[in-house]
Specification:
The complex is a heterodimer of chains A (177) and B (213). Chain A is mostly helical. Chain A contains 10 helices and no strands. Chain A has helices spanning 5-16, 20-41, 46-62, 73-91, 101-107, 110-114, 120-124, 129-140, 145-151, 156-173. Chain B has one domain (19-46, 58-210). In chain B, 44% of the residues are buried. Classes of the chains: A mainly alpha (177), B mainly alpha (213). Chain A binds chain B through residues 15-20, 23-24, 27-28, 31, 50, 53-54, 57-59, 61-69, 71, 75-76, 79-80, 82-83, 86-87, 101, 176-177, and chain B through 1, 3, 6-7, 10-19, 21-22, 25, 82-85, 87, 151-153, 155, 212-213. Chain B: Keywords: Membrane, Transmembrane, Transmembrane helix.
Chain lengths: 177, 213
């Protein structure tokens, strides 16, 4: 089961109001999401994944007052997770490029959940056709960047830029930035 | 502890969070820090004796408007940065408005005065002390802001430190203006601003260390 943004947000708002049941459900759903999030990004450090999951849950708990209930919950939660990951790499003195928040939300599949009410096609139609096509092919249909580039005789970087720009304006439209 | 046990203990502690908890905590911090700075001004430096009569002139109001707007703009940027998903704050660019307006006043003042007075108008009597005092007076406010951030979730620590430092500098300069009897716009623009920028630089320096969570 994949919880939607609306469900998670409702649980968080309940938790902030003191509803222990809703809050517990929220943390129970978040733990595997966070495990997947860190697991995918720390492939060679599996033993650190559970530590990061716990640290992030604690941070989400102690800093829950900084969640603005009028804004998307998943963006807030993944921003906390992203910070914990950056901090983890900083402590290890490893430099790794880390994706921006909007890319994370897409990779974790939440851009669809956030826009569950809106038809994804109508959303993509608000973008320039080239960006919409690049996003549809790489993020919805599951083509690789190289495959999408081949199809339209574009360069890889051209596809990547289109995807990035398109996601950025979608993120802005959904109030994620 | 395994994660399930952790979730048990976290969800056993669901004290309700007040709405606008961030805004409240930030207001308390600024008020507390500013109160401490005000004490330093009143009991350490002393308020200028001619304050009541100076309030008939425009210079005092100019200083208040400039320092207050700098403090408020920087505080808004700081507030924005308290949330983890905050993007690079563009609101700091608004600081260029008070700086630009005060620059215009300085140009008008210079145009109305003979060039032989310009240096004295710029340096006043206290240029060697002013910036350092603003920096020192900013410290209680900066400390209070950093305390407030212990419960927040900033992710751009250096920028947050700088914004908090600038806000502290702005409010410190506002309070210092109750002591300082300089009247020139160019003086305020240079030496007050230098004090605020120094506080921002200090904030940027300590931010990554003290704002980590």
């Amino acid at each position: 089961m994949r919880a939607s943004e609306d469900q998670l947000r409702a649980m968080m708002i309940g938790g902030l109001a003191g509803d222990a049941r809703a809050y517990r459900d929220l943390l129970d759903i978040l733990a595997p999401l966070l495990r997947a999030f860190f697991g995918r990004r720390l492939r060679d450090a599996a033993e650190d994944v559970e530590d990061l999951v716990q640290e992030t849950l604690i941070a989400i708990h102690t800093r829950r007052a900084t969640y603005d209930t009028s804004r998307p919950f998943t963006a807030w939660a993944y921003a906390v997770a992203r910070y914990k990951m950056v901090d983890h790499f900083r402590r290890r003195r490893v430099t790794v490029p880390i994706e921006g928040l909007e890319d994370i939300l897409v990779a974790e599949g939440f851009e669809e959940a956030v826009s569950a009410r809106m038809d994804i096609d109508s959303l993509l139609n608000t973008l320039p056709p080239k960006q919409a096509r690049a996003i549809r092919e790489t993020k919805v249909d599951g083509l690789s960047v190289a495959e999408a580039a081949d199809r339209h005789a574009m360069s890889d970087s051209d596809v990547k830029i289109s995807v990035h720009r398109g996601l950025k304006s979608l993120a802005a439209r959904l109030g994620l930035s | 502890m395994n994660t399930d046990e952790l979730i048990d203990s976290l969800s056993a502690d669901v004290t309700p969070v007040a709405t606008h908890a961030v805004e409240r905590r930030l207001s308390v911090a600024v008020a507390t820090g500013a109160a401490a700075t005000a004490m330093l001004v009143v009991f350490g430096l002393g308020v200028r004796h001619d304050l009541a009569s100076a309030m008939h002139g425009y210079a005092v109001w100019m200083k208040w408007a400039y320092t207050l707007s700098c403090g408020v703009i920087a505080l808004f940027a700081t507030y924005h940065l308290a949330r983890p998903e905050a993007t690079r704050s563009r609101s700091l660019w608004l600081l260029l408005i008070p700086v630009g307006l005060l620059g215009l006043v300085a140009v008008v003042e210079f145009a109305a005065a003979p060039p032989s007075h310009w240096l004295a108008m710029w340096l006043g009597d206290s240029w060697q002390r002013c910036s350092m005092r603003v920096l020192v007076l900013a410290m209680p406010i900066l400390v209070a802001l950093i305390w407030a951030f212990r419960r927040f979730a900033p992710t751009q620590l250096r920028l947050t430190g700088a914004a908090a430092g600038f806000a502290a500098g702005g409010f410190a300069a506002l309070l210092y203006s109750f002591r300082c009897d300089e009247t020139g716009a160019a003086f305020v623009l240079t030496w007050y601003t230098l004090g605020m920028v120094a506080a921002a630089a200090f904030g940027a320096l300590i931010g990554p260390r003290l704002l980590r969570w």
